[in-house]
Amino acid sequence: MSRPARWILVLSMLACGRSPPPEPRLANGEKIWISAGGVSLRVEVASTPESRSRGLMLREDLEWNEGILFVFDREGIYGFWMKDTFLPLSIAFVDSRRTIVAIEDMAPLDESIHLPPRPVLYALEVHRDWFRTHGVRVGDRLEFLGSPPPQEPGGALRDESSAPREQP
């Protein structure tokens, strides 16, 4: 094998090792299950310019384990504000490797701009303190779940690690 061909092979192998996980198809408006730092929640996908602009504006309620996932076409520095948003929220900025790079709290109706510290591909908005309550922090990962997590009879999400076990 020639020397240039070896370099191309080595560089190709290095590039493959750094590629992000494959993306699921995320349809605008679709409700999907994700995991943030190992904690499951249901999110609405906002993947068009119009839906990303609207976000959670004018909504008066949001379930505790629900949120909105902003999905961009490419990594970038995207700003968020709370214009016409009545709910106190927290936002996690997530890069293309699905790692949370920043978490910020946002006050209702506040028009100051919240920016990530570096380029991101996603932003996840949830109730204020949701991340803190669940111990989700910078460095944690976002995962796309294929199906909803197990539920208790009343509809509450169940943590499999603490679920009661049947006695023999």
In short:
The chain is α+β, with helices and mostly antiparallel strands and 168 residues long.
Description of the molecule:
- Helices cover 15% and strands 29% of the residues.
- It is α+β, with helices and mostly antiparallel strands and 168 residues long.
- The protein is globular and about 65 Å long.
- It starts with a helix and ends in a 24-residue tail after the last strand.
- The protein has 3 helices and 7 strands.
- The protein has a single domain, classed as Jelly Rolls (Sandwich), CATH 2.60.120.
- A hairpin with a 5-residue loop joins strand 4 and strand 5.
- Residues 7-22 and 158-168 have low confidence and may be disordered.
- The longest helix is centred in the first third of the chain and has 15 residues, at 3-17.
- The protein has helices spanning 3-17, 49-54, 130-133; strands spanning 31-36, 39-46, 66-76, 89-94, 100-106, 120-127, 142-144.
Sum up the structure in keywords.
about 170 residues, alpha+beta, Jelly Rolls, 7-stranded mixed beta sheet, about 30% strand
Kindly provide the radius of gyration, computed on alpha-carbon positions and rounded to a whole number of angstroms.
19 Å
CATH class term? Mainly Beta
Q: Decide which structural class fits the backbone.
A: alpha+beta
CATH hierarchy: architecture: Sandwich
Shape: globular
Strand order of the largest sheet: 5-4-6-3-2-1-7
